Predict the 3D structure of the following.
Amino acid sequence: MAFLNPIFLLGAMAAALPVLVHLVRRTRAPRIQFPSLMFLRKIEQKTIRRRKLRNLLLLLMRCAALLLLALAFARPFFTGSNPVSASGDHISTVILVDGSYSMRYGDVFNRARQSARNMINDAAADEQLSIVFFAKSYQVLMPLKADHAEAAAALNQMQPGLDSTDYLQAIQAGDAILKDAGRGQHRIYLISDFQDAGWNRAAPQVKLAPDVKLFPIDVSDAKAANLAASGVIADPVVYAQKYAGKIVARFSNFGLEDVDTAAVEFKLNDLPVERKPLKLTAGATHNVEFTGFNVPDGSNRATVEITGDSFTLDNKFFFAIRRDNQTRVLAIDTAGRGRSESFFLQQSLAAGENNQHALTAKTAGSVNPSELDPYRVVIVNDALGITEGLAAGLRNFVERGGGLILAAGKHTDASDFNRLLGSIAPAQLGEVVQSRGYALMSQVKTDHPIFGAFARSGRLTSTRVYGYHRATAKEGALTIAALDDGSPILVEGSAGRGKVLLITTTLDTSWNDLPLTPMFLPLVRQMLEYLGGREAASSYTIGQAFNTPADKDGSLPAIDTPGGKRVDDARRNSSGEQSVDAAEIGFYRLRYRDRDEFVAVNLDTKESDLTKTNVDELVASVLPAPGDNNAQPAQSPRLTAEEKEAKQRLWLPLLVTALLLFVAEAIIARRVRVPKLI
């Protein structure tokens, strides 16, 4: 209970006046005429004044009347739930509570939970409530029901998670819940710190139903500041002991003041490698580079960490570096004078540092079919002299999981090719097409992993092709690149556990100009990584799925979370690998029989930016169109103290009761015999 005019409670002290009057007032004895005192004996006696309360009923009535009068003028009201809805309408309320990791900042989440608890306490007894906990996705902790105790219990079990925020999907979820609420008042409370990063303005628009009102409750800190390790660029796999490249770590200051005392530290397998001081200007991101350190064999755990602020959850960035042997690639070409057909392949794979692939070029006659296993990918580069034995060896190689590239050029006879390699090739070769002009490789599936890196440039589609073999793709094969007339240039297929790529033109300049373009080197490496490499990433973001490949013997690793628990819900994908949804930050441990490997998982660092969005604009963006029925900006329905007191009007019964007591007291007082005062 609270009071609108608490100063009038001082008037309650007036209830003590009747007590004082009853105590102070003394009744005098009547005078009696007595002839003489000479015959009376004088007795010494101490005078003791005894004051007793008489007529207790009158006293209580007078005190109660004055007390009720003071309470009535103080205008009391109840702050808790009302016995019924004040307006008599059916009310349905959805309370959306932000549980993203930015809510861990300071005391923000405790304020959010208290705000939600206040909503529950202020709700009418018959009001239906729903509790929704949201971040990047949402969870309905309690569907619509008039159960305030369950709603409070749902609040108590909430803890902020590690995901980023998505306001629109949460608002849409609240609107969907209210569609089943029936007629009456429908409202949504959105309790959050209202980061600007949580409002994806490029997402499809969300519009509330005309009868739904949205009320934002902002619980953010007014002057929030945060330092964060916002990203790392690093080679996930290296092939030499010395790390020749550069690790570029990004650190951001999301506060309004410069920070001059920060420090960053790079660790490898929990051992310090290098520490550097760092000055961060307000609102800026700075890069720090590390290089020249030794990398142990196998999978290694690496971290960069910044110190200098109180919100430490996003101060560390995790990434993995694996030191591995180079992938061996065999190119089978045609013996001849001059430059080999594999010249451009050799040049492309030898360029740069940290080369993943080691290319060996041989002629068909010098290849031992039984010695293909050490290679991860074999390229049959327009080779003459493919024997039955070598063709059988290539079939076994692919079926056991190897990668194979078949490049058909001027030395390739279509009939021999189809006879020897037709069982594993994804297409049947036909006649050779050559002309004085050229065709463009204009049809490219940029959504394929090989061409994903070229989706934006578009330069690959300008490749000029002067000669090629006509080809007919087999059932189940996929043409991923073709000429402008639809003739296949690159066809993908599979055989057993392996993959096969058929290129219907050459990998040198005899039939096309691709080796002369900047696209050739990345294209060759993309094909080799797709066939024989394993997708490698230095880190993942929480919520992403990562795959754990099988070991050489086909066994799958046991997986431990960063917290040390065993993952039991890994899924098997079509390629036989395990797929795991990253739910914790840190390092997942993959326990193979002879080694351990690590997968690094980090926060979505856009959530580290605590810059507030324009809440009014967010609310306006989800309001129904002006022409919709009842479309109007929401105004908070939470009653003010004056409104609550005006609705309850507790002063009126108190005042009436006080007046009745005064009347009753007057009537009873006239009937009570009081000794006459002299």
Observations:
- The two ends are 49 Å apart (CA to CA).
- The domain at 229-316 is CATH 2.60.40.10 (Immunoglobulin-like).
- The CA atoms of residues 28 and 358 lie 125 Å apart.
- The mean pLDDT is 86.
